[in-house]
């Protein structure tokens, strides 16, 4: 079967929509349930590590396959609690035996950019370290935080785009604690200034774990170059659930990145500022992250078997496929529910199918009624026949999702992707 059609055969084995995937820690029994959708795999094991740095696993267990759902699963418990331990899946497919990062990893070991796929962390949802410092200012996720002003119309949104690291890494930044510069914890010192600007929504450049950085190297590099340094804005997606460890004060601790990002969001809410996340679901940094688990499924292919690249990144994610859609929607719901985020800005949203984005909106709106969904609506869609992209054309069909008006931007600023050109603001 041609690679561009193999996904249809794989979808003969699907779990239910609400089926839990990943690692589920049971606080009462201390058991951990591992599950991975890999219908074409011939073997799946979980490798468990007591430390994020050791090369060989402390324990290894074989998972069993449910032929009806295509999910491999195992529930286990050891004498010592696995809370805060780490794991990888070892998956055998037509590509051979590969160590794989769990697509549903809620946190990770410090990533060293060493060519590995990364290592997931086992997270206990009842561990106090899973919460923001001091606890949430509003514990009811179904209601808007009491400190936030009313927001009911997209036209009211004044969005301020900013990088977590760039906000405070400069020697001149308001954060004077060197251990906090460029981190979630340091970003809090910039909140009063952002509040004074009169904005309503802080748009954080990608904070989902991204690739091509060593998370333990935090040195400020004022090189002015885009290559040969340890720097990234985050548009090389690595995980859709784990926060980025480079922005944590302690990347080796899987709970630090969680608690510190939640604390940032909580402190913003206390000042009446909403927080939306810049999300990159249109491509991955490397195809191996998903293709080693289910070869030929998660990405779009040309008829010759090569990956399509309307994103310009070499691998367009097949968001219209059922389990890819589940991965993305589950991710959106997780960030809304567990991190209390107030919305999402979709990178190259026109590459995503409309059904996936709308499904994500409906589920997130059930958690937070004033959730904001905005994105880049360029007409780039190359999904399966019979599906449509969430682009500018689709805006006539919904008022729940919005796109940027790049024509207005170019009229005001001019220059398009460059700084040259005559526009109203530039006066050139």
Question: Explain this structure to me?
Answer:
The protein is of the alpha/beta class. It folds into two domains: 3-125, Immunoglobulin-like (Sandwich), CATH 2.60.40.10; 129-413, TIM Barrel. Helix content is 19%, strand content 16%. It contains nine helices and 15 strands. The protein has helices spanning 6-10, 164-168, 184-187, 191-196, 254-270, 288-291, 322-339, 354-367, 406-413, and strands at 22-25, 32-37, 43-49, 59-62, 64-66, 71-76, 86-93, 96-100, 120-121, 159-162, 201-204, 274-279, 343-346, 372-375, 402-403. The strands form three sheets. A six-stranded parallel sheet has the order 10-11-12-13-14-15. Strands 3, 4, 7, 8 and 9 form a five-stranded antiparallel sheet that branches. The protein has a four-stranded antiparallel sheet with strand order 1-2-6-5, with no helix packed on it. α7 (322-339) runs parallel beside α8. It is globular, with a radius of gyration of 21 Å. The termini are far apart. The mean pLDDT is 93.
Taking the sheet with the most strands, its summary is: 6 strands, parallel
Structural class designation: alpha/beta
For this structure, the CATH topology of the largest domain is TIM Barrel
Q: How do the strands line up in the largest sheet?
A: 10-11-12-13-14-15
Helix coverage percent: 10-25%
Order of helices and strands: HEEEEEEEEEEHHHEHEHHEHEEH
Provide the CATH superfamily of the largest domain.
Glycosidases
Ranges where pLDDT stays below 50 over 5 or more residues in a row are none
How much of the residues is beta strand, in percent?
Answer: 15-25%
Shape: globular
Helices, by number, come to: 9
CATH level 1 name of the largest domain: Alpha Beta
CATH architecture of the largest domain: Alpha-Beta Barrel
Which whole number gives the mean pLDDT?
A: 93
């Amino acid at each position: 079967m041609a690679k561009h059609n193999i996904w249809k055969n794989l979808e003969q084995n699907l779990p239910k929509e609400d089926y839990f995937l990943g690692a589920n820690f049971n606080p009462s029994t201390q058991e951990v349930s591992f599950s991975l959708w890999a219908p074409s795999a011939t073997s799946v094991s979980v490798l468990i590590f007591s430390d994020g740095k050791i090369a060989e696993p402390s324990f290894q267990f074989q998972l069993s396959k449910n032929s009806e759902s295509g999910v491999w699963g195992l529930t286990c418990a050891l004498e010592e609690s696995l809370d805060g331990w780490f794991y990888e899946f070892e998956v055998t497919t037509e590509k051979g035996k590969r160590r794989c990062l769990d697509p549903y990893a809620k946190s990770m070991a410090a990533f060293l950019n060493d060519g590995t796929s990364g290592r997931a962390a086992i997270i206990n949802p009842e561990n106090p370290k899973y919460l923001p410092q001091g606890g949430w200012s509003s514990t009811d996720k179904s209601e808007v935080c009491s400190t936030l002003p009313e927001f009911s119309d997209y036209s009211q949104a004044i969005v301020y785009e900013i990088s977590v690291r760039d906000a405070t890494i400069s020697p001149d930044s308001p954060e004077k604690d060197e251990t906090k510069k460029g981190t979630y914890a340091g970003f809090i010192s910039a909140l009063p200034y952002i509040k004074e600007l009169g904005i309503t929504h802080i748009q954080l450049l990608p904070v989902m774990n991204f690739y091509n950085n060593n998370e333990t190297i935090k040195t400020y590099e004022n090189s002015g170059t885009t290559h040969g340094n340890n720097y990234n804005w985050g548009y090389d997606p690595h995980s859709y659930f784990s926060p980025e460890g480079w922005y944590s004060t302690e990347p080796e601790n899987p709970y630090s990145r969680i608690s510190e990002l939640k604390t940032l969001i909580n402190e913003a809410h206390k000042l009446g500022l909403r927080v939306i996340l810049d999300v990159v679901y249109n491509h991955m940094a490397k195809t191996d992250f998903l293709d080693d688990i289910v070869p030929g499924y998660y990405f779009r292919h040309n008829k010759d078997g090569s990956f399509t690249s309307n994103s310009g990144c070499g691998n367009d994610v097949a968001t219209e496929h059922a389990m890819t859609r589940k991965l993305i929607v589950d991710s959106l719901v997780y960030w809304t529910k567990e991190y209390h985020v107030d919305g999402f800005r979709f990178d190259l949203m026109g590459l995503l199918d409309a059904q996936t984005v709308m499904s994500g909106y409906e589920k997130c709106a059930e958690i937070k009624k004033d959730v904001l969904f905005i994105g880049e609506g360029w007409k780039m869609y190359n999904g399966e026949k019979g599906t449509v992209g969430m682009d500018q054309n689709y805006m006539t069909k919904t008022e729940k999702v919005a796109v940027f008006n790049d024509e207005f931007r170019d009229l005001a600023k001019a220059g398009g992707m460059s700084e040259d050109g005559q526009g109203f603001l530039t006066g050139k």
